[in-house]
Amino acid sequence: MKIKMNLELKDEPGTLARAIAPISACGINIVYIVHDREKKQANGNITVQITVEAEEEQIKKMRHSLEENKIRILSIGEERLIEELTFIMIGHIVDTDIKDTIGRIDETGYAEIVDLELKMPQKKKESSARVTIKAVGKEEMKRCMKIIGRMAFKKGITIVYPVEL
Amino acid sequence: MKTAKISIVGFGSIGAGLATEIAKKKDFLKIKGYDLKVVTIVDADGAEIDEDGLNIKSIIEKRERGEDFSYAKGALDLIGEIDQDILVECTPSNIRNGNPGLNHILTSLKNGINVVTSNKGPLVVAHKRIMETAKKNNASIGYEATVGGAIPLINLVKSNLRADDIVAIKGILNGTSNYILTKMHAEKRDYEEILLEAKELGIAETDASYDVEGIDTASKLVILANSLMGMDVKYEDVEVEGITRITPESLDLADELGCTIKLIGEVEREGKRLKVSPKLVPYDRPLSVGGTLNIVLIKTDVAGEVTISGKGAGPKETSSALLSDILNIVDERC
């Protein structure tokens, strides 16, 4: 399961590494880290958002280990893919390796392609695909769309997004 | 009775359509207190002139017989020569340098002659220059017919919504591309087939690239951004993608979602974002209008969203917008 947590860290060199070490020591896979030094708390400390992939037992161990290392967990909970976006791709989708496109989204850790339907006309003509992506938040969805946009440009694929109303 | 002498420059479908409507509505306009006299009609190959008012029907019949105009004069020759209140500029649009329309418009304004136009090119290329020239020479310029045909968009914003700040405009601004997408969707046929059919029906021009590649929509966005949103943008500021790659399969996939695909033009002041691209539009939203219809959604700070729809092209529909501008000027100036 995917777990998102917010940790409180002192704004000093090396604190992030000291927070990551006990997590990794529990054999937990860190999916991504959002580290924004500009957003400080009233006490001058900073909040770091870390998303991990782990089993329940590993989570217990990690919490204990973080507490031992005097790292405060501000919040922790299962991460849900709450943002959803469906769009249409037009081009030589299969020839340009659709697996690569799916892979790049899935490997972000914060978004997944949850549905894909491909329609192919006669040979040589361009095919069309409807793709649904889910992401953990609006910002992550935007990042995802940038990745898709860059790939579409590189592979000569047109993307039809929903109109924003 | 308010009287105005009118010159029509460019006697293609729009110019001839306007002349026809003026002749047809003569009595109706008189009841409303207007006497519009078309005193010159100018095209690339000559002019017809009568300071007491031309007989439109006989001129159209003459053109249909393939006969030349009576005088070998151009629009610029007549600007200083003929007494006229309003010059209606209907020559073909050129978004590279705006000419010949831009030259006609600027010369008229410099001579204190009011201008009404359906020609997008001059407004896309030199909006600021045209407005400054009009102001400096105490002349009016009406360009309602450049965007959305019969839809009273520019005048609506400039009059009824004048206290509102327009933050965004989006919509379908090209009837030809909307017709093609609607037909492709309904009949599950290829883009190329429908385009050919649209050309045969006269809905698309022989060279339909302006329409289907989004150039026409982008030009209209530039006019709307500069004239209604206080922006200072050029055609090059618009990100443009047309409908040429839309497939029947993509429309099927959209249909399964409860959507269709439309060519949408969007301008947002925040971030100076101007974009033309095919978009998924849910069936239950106003922007899903079909056929050759145009639709515009105006987002303002006070009124919220205002949506207006109508026929976006065609000589008769465009005449409605041209006549509205003409009568506004007559009210103000004649």
Automatic annotation (TrEMBL), chain A:
Residues 4-76 form the ACT domain. This is Amino acid-binding protein. Gene3D superfamilies: 3.30.70.260. InterPro entries: ACT-like_dom_sf, ACT_dom. It comes from Candidatus Methanolliviera hydrocarbonicum. It comes from the Archaea.
